[in-house]
Amino acid sequence: MNGFSDHHLDEDAFGASKGGIVSSFDAFPKTKKTYLVQGRNSSAWTVTLILTCIYLSWSEITRWYTGTTTQSFSVEKGVSHDMQINLDIIVSMRCGDLRVNMQDAAGDRTLAGDLLRNDPTNWAQWTGKKMEKGMHELGKDDGVNPGWEELWDVHEQLGKAKKRKFSKTPKLRGSPDACRIYGSLDGNKVQGDFHITARGHGYQEFGEHLDHTTFNFSHIIREMSFGPYYPSLTNPLDNTIAITPTENDHFYKFQYYLSIVPTIYTDSPSMLPLLESVNRNPKAHPMKSVFSTHAIKTNQYAVTSQSHTVPENYVPGVFVKFDIEPIMLAVVEEWGGFWRLIVRLINVVSGVMVAGSWAWQLWDWGLEVWGKKGRRRADEMGMLGTPSGTPAREAGSFFGSEKKKQWD
Q1: pLDDT in the model for residue 10
Q2: How far apart (Å, rounded) are the C-alpha atoms in residues 165 and 182?
Q3: What is the pTM of this model?
Q4: Cβ atoms within 10 A of the Cβ of 232, count?
Q5: What Å distances lie between residue 108 and 192, 195, 235, 295, CA to CA?
């Protein structure tokens, strides 16, 4: 019994293909295309998996490069005595009519006007169309100039914290009607008061009386910081402008209340205990080589303001009252290491590939099951929509009987 020949099957269908020299080298004969079932095209799914791997891998690399930033508070350790104050302010009065002084809780009075630079300038050179970009009123447009709390990328800030010089005053045009007061000075690290007043008002002084109509304490604060001078680090009072409501408000008082918090920014967590314990100026610190490259030790502050007119028996001016909090804020940025990044990338790529393979198999299986159900429904319906169990001749006899009745 030869079942193969009984079913009229040809052995040539399973043999080697004819018609080419290359076929003689084919050790494994191929099946003809008529006996093959072509699978579904998965090229689009493969491209999707590749793009997903690239996106997730790039996200991991970006997260590794920026690092993880943590913030912690602790009681300030060590003993410090001095604190540097950096100021850059333009007041709408002539330099000769202004007095700048500082007095702290220890009773020391500093003639800041003699220690800071006083450059005559023109108020119009700093306002109007020539106003610097980002200038705003305190409490308004805060989203334009984010404060220290938004400086998450410590590594980027460490790279910027190298420029420590004040910019030059623009060349004077016309007669001076304003004064730029800028520079750095050292004071006691205690509660204090920094104020700018008019000549002969606030402190007893011999000389010609200053006409009250010349008072105008409208001002622009370009820099107000405590600690080493880092121009790239934005503080709450930086780039703020305050103007008197009217030109006739000569006796007007601007008052700022600052709460200063010592702060350390570092990308070296292992050095943090030593940076916290030794509370000194970075130039005299035993780890001074670490500063500007791996750490910034400075101060940040919160500020509230109040401005109003005062009677003529009061002292008008710009007053900055600051208090130092006994806590230390540490902002630390860490990286996971290069080999840890490689492991995470391998996990991401392999996870996407495995999950994608499972998803494709489930999709293929679902389509196959759905196709079988469709074919089963088609098999259950016979010719002309009759059930498959109804014989064809019965259907034919039905039509024949109807025809016979008509002839009768």
Answers
A1: 59
A2: 11
A3: 0.65
A4: 13
A5: 9, 14, 26, 31
